[in-house]
Specification:
Elements (H helix, E strand, L loop, with lengths): L4 E3 L9 H7 L4 E5 L13 H14 L5 E3 L11 H20 L4 E4 L2 E2 L4 H17 L6 E4 L8 E2 L2 H10 L6
Parallel strand pairs: 1-2, 2-3, 3-4, 4-6
Antiparallel strand pairs: 5-7
Helix pairs in contact: 3-4, 4-5
């Protein structure tokens, strides 16, 4: 079966996304796990999760993908931003698993220093995040346009993948 979707908003509730998807003829979708330009995440309670799971099953919505906010920068050389990035990856993997969402997308980020050091930092921060959580969601590394100091070429993605101590799904 062909899966066709779009980027939709969960601002009014993850359980409210299914009607949005059906209205546009989608049977899958992607959404930001929290504010794409900030770090705040709305609380998703048990009742909302139950409504989401019921609506999703009834509509045959499959292979949903969460997307981390753009503020998550695993390549950064700034300590406070590294802590934030690792925390958000772990937290959102937990959230996706609680919602039975299959995938979580992230951009590796950009760095002001040498590319290899940035790749090593990404590996370290992903390892830290993955150690904190037992998640069912797959972590997807998305390539980037490679403008300026962006990390995310195919060889860099491969180096990150192979460098992880515990490869994610």
């Amino acid at each position: 079966m062909l899966r066709l979707g779009a980027f939709l908003s969960i601002a009014k509730g993850v359980d409210k996304v299914v009607p949005q998807a059906l209205e546009i003829g989608a049977n899958t979708f992607q959404f930001f796990t929290r504010n794409p330009r900030g770090g705040a995440a709305r609380t998703i309670g048990d009742a909302e999760i139950a409504r989401w799971l019921k609506a999703r099953q009834a509509a045959d919505i499959a292979e949903v993908c969460g997307h981390l906010p753009y503020t998550v920068n695993l390549a950064t050389d700034k300590d406070n931003l590294q802590e934030f990035a690792s925390m958000v990856v772990a937290d959102d993997l937990r959230r996706m698993s609680a919602l039975s969402i299959e995938y979580l997308v992230l951009h590796p980020g950009s760095s002001g220093d040498e590319r290899q050091r940035a790749v090593e930092r990404i590996i370290r921060l992903l390892d830290q995040a993955l150690e904190k959580v037992d998640a069912s969601a797959w972590l997807l590394l998305e390539t980037m346009a490679l403008q300026g100091n962006e990390i995310g070429s195919i060889p860099e993605i491969a180096a990150i993948w192979h460098g992880l101590g515990r490869p994610p799904q």
